[in-house]
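Re: your question from the hallway

Yes, I did run it. Sequences:
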Amino acid sequence: DVKVTQSSRYLVKRTGEKVFLECVQDMDHENMFWYRQDPGLGLRLIYFSYDVKMKEKGDIPEGYSVSREKKERFSLILESASTNQTSMYLCASSLSTGSLRSYTFGSGTRLTVV
Amino acid sequence: QQQVKQSPQSLIVQKGGISIINCAYENTAFDYFPWYQQFPGKGPALLIAIRPDVSEKKEGRFTISFNKSAKQFSLHIMDSQPGDSATYFCAAGLRVNYGGATNKLIFGTGTLLAVQP
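Structure:
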């Protein structure tokens, strides 16, 4: 069964800490995405990557950065965590053919910043 | 122009009833409209999708109705079952090209559906 795996299901961090959220996909997908999900706001795109070492800003990139050193791994970095970054973070991947059906989400990491 | 407006925020339906969730968009450049289903503790999963050259698409108990002139689309769940209880997201997609193609999805705010037995 093909998967997008997020390393942590729950995470609690302190304000000001540097936080790494990891995502790995085993489908050989070219594209990878990071979203945050908040009640009443839906899913909002933070960053995406269309190739190794390539990245593009999404709709809400402020306070975040990303790293993609290998095709299967896409990391979201919170340089200095703040309480307003408490959220559910979802990783996704898709083929570069643009196939909608290939778009696959992970189960999410619920991050709490205290 | 990039927003997708979704309503209602929550919905309670009796088993066997019809669940209807509505979405509206502004950007006429969107070229496909998927619906995602999300169960607690899981990521969203593609349920059904439609392209703007079609007015209706049906897969089992799930139907998308699409009104291009009104820039609206809706999800109908016929014979709703307790197992359909989940959060549903509409989305609108743009295909953008970098090295290859990728799909930029703009999501609605979600509808929490509860189907009562």
